[in-house]
What we know:
Blueprint: E1 2-4, E2 7-9, H1 21-45, E3 55-57, E4 63-68, E5 73-78, H2 80-95, E6 99-102, H3 103-108, E7 115-122, E8 130-135, H4 143-162, H5 166-179, H6 184-198, E9 208-210
Parallel strand pairs: 3-6, 7-9
Antiparallel strand pairs: 1-2, 4-5, 6-8, 7-8
Amino acid sequence: DKYIGDAIMALFGAPFEGPNDADNAISTANKMMVELKALNLKRAAMGEPSIDIGLGISTGNVIVGNIGSIKRMEYTVIGDSVNLASRLEGANKAYGSKILFSEFTHARLADPQLVREIDLIRVKGKDFPVGVHESLGYRADEIDCGLGTMLEHYARGFAAYRAMAWGDAEQHFLAALKALPGDGPSAMYVERCRAFAAAPPERDWDGVWTLTSK
């Protein structure tokens, strides 16, 4: 749709909605990461620094059409879903992830493969919490090289975290890191579990994490 500074905005399901819009968006994001890996190998061979990107995806009702003034109009979409996708893109920095998408996109996926729940977050500028997931389809070739084992330990750790069992959760996340060193979300949760163990939240804790930055 457009370039916004160093970002690219892409639309799926506009102007006409289709049954595979969410799957197409996730598939495109994963293909971008695959192509970026190939590009960075070429850049490394030429002694050039690698390029890093993050992607945010959300699904929902938006206003679509020609927006602007008579002198300058452009075909685009506006709405909360657009803003949420932008916030999720920025949230990758906090979680050490690459592709984050909202619960609304997850609900529309016909074939959710290699995805994991990341958190229940309240993004900057919003009052309501949103479930966030990560897509790891671009790393499918690593499923037998630690990725599958990592996801198993991560799922157990995440369940323990939600149950406020900080010690058990930390051990599972550490096991996830042992299976796949460098996993951003697991490393983040190790630190969060330690912080909660030292200063536990209230008993009626809702599991929501508030992001204070874009």
